[in-house]
Amino acid sequence: MSTILQNDLFIKAALSQQVERPPVWMMRQAGRFMPEYWEIKNKYSFLEMCKTPEIAADVTMLPVDLLGIDAAILFSDILVTGEAMGGDLSFEQGVGPRFSNPVRTWKDAENLSVDCLDKLQYVADAIHVIQQRLDGRIPLIGFAGAPFTILSYLVEGGSSRDFKLTKLMLNNEPELAHLILQKIADLTIAYLNMQIDAGVNAVQLFDSWANALSWNDYHTFSHKYNKYILANLKRTVPVISFAKGASVFAPVMAESNPDVISVDWNADLLNIKKSLPAGIAVQGNLDPFIMYADKPVIKAKIHELFERMRGENGFICNLGHGIMPDMPFDHVKYAVEVIREFRY
Ligand SMILES: Cc1c2[nH]c(c1CCC(=O)O)Cc1[nH]c(c(CCC(=O)O)c1C)Cc1[nH]c(c(CCC(=O)O)c1C)Cc1[nH]c(c(C)c1CCC(=O)O)C2
């Protein structure tokens, strides 16, 4: 690590070193649950916010200044790689992400571009601005979507409940799926290495919808590509592998040798950690929905997890999935305070 960080709890825990308390950050920590996010969001579209480095930096800094978390995460979206490859991406209020030109045929797949890193230059520019603003206070996490999760959005043309079209492709035309997955994986390697060169202090690969896959399909269509990506990253910063489904797939994820595995809320985190090779840290695994509960419940659930993880190096506190737009801001802030006051 070249930068000297004032608060390096997150990096230490990611590298399984001893810390006085677990570090905390939360997925979707910059977002619609914050009134200050809406002040910006009411002026720009979501993609304008992502693509304007000064605005992306302003939004990245909101939870740093308002919540006091131990790591910032770049404000962007996993779907920007799909857009750079040729996807016509939009985010409509109430509808969510949409690709208006879904990728379903060999011709569609062949048209996807891999040599398009220049289209993502705005992300490197944002990282430079954010690192100036952070000024070494806490680390910055970069990220990308894992190939299977990006494939699902490209094929479905947006969010999906059951991934019917994606699974139809995996079953009926596996070679077509492999062509698309390989292209996404190759761009993702270049993209994450670009973020590392631009100065992020860690990267996270989001395989949000891995839990849709069977055990064998997970190996064939997800793990294979995630492993290929991790093998080709500049391993100068910690790498976090996230899957909704990590409760089941964690031992497989470990084979791609990440520094950290981020676990949803279904599993017992200590059991997962003990099942992994020494030196792999875990992140998670609070049920995000505790944020709706009364404050004493929030505190009790955090302490329950921390007591369970007592004595374990290599534990980063996070939610098993992202903060929801209607979660009370003061509950999230309270959760961070409880974590920051905790000492082993
Ligand atoms: C699957 C996925 C996406 N995006 C992402 C994932 C993986 C994590 C996960 O599993 O949730 C990742 C993501 N999306 C966003 C970030 C920024 C950093 C952070 O604060 O975590 C990150 C890391 C901002 C965002 N990404 C999005 C928003 C909301 C945009 C808005 O303000 O309208 C934000 C703050 C939009 C988005 N982008 C995506 C969806 C499903 C949606 C929201 C749909 C909806 O609820 O309206 C795709």
Describe the secondary structure blueprint for this structure:
Elements: H1 9-14, H2 35-41, H3 46-51, H4 53-66, E1 72-73, H5 80-84, E2 89-92, E3 96-99, H6 106-111, H7 121-134, E4 140-145, H8 147-156, H9 164-172, H10 174-198, E5 202-207, H11 215-231, E6 239-243, H12 246-254, E7 260-262, H13 269-275, E8 281-286, H14 295-308, E9 315-319, H15 329-341
Parallel strand pairs: 1-4, 4-5, 5-6, 6-7, 7-8, 8-9
Antiparallel strand pairs: 2-3
Name its key features:
344 residues; alpha/beta; TIM Barrel; seven-stranded parallel sheet; 15 helices; 12% strand; binds coproporphyrinogen III; EC 4.1.1.37; Uroporphyrinogen_deCO2ase_HemE
If you had to describe this structure to a student in words, what would you say it looks like?
This protein is an alpha/beta fold and 344 residues long. The chain contains 15 helices and nine strands. The protein has one domain: Alpha-Beta Barrel (TIM Barrel). It has helices at 9-14, 35-41, 46-51, 53-66, 80-84, 106-111, 121-134, 147-156, 164-172, 174-198, 215-231, 246-254, 269-275, 295-308, 329-341; strands at 72-73, 89-92, 96-99, 140-145, 202-207, 239-243, 260-262, 281-286, 315-319. Strands 1-4-5-6-7-8-9 form a seven-stranded parallel sheet. The chain has a two-stranded antiparallel ribbon with strand order 2-3. Helix 4 (53-66) runs parallel beside helix 7 (121-134) and helix 10 (174-198) packs parallel to helix 11 (215-231). The radius of gyration is 19 Å and the shape is globular. It starts with 8 loop residues before the first helix and ends with a helix. The relative contact order is 0.14. The mean pLDDT is 97. It binds coproporphyrinogen III.
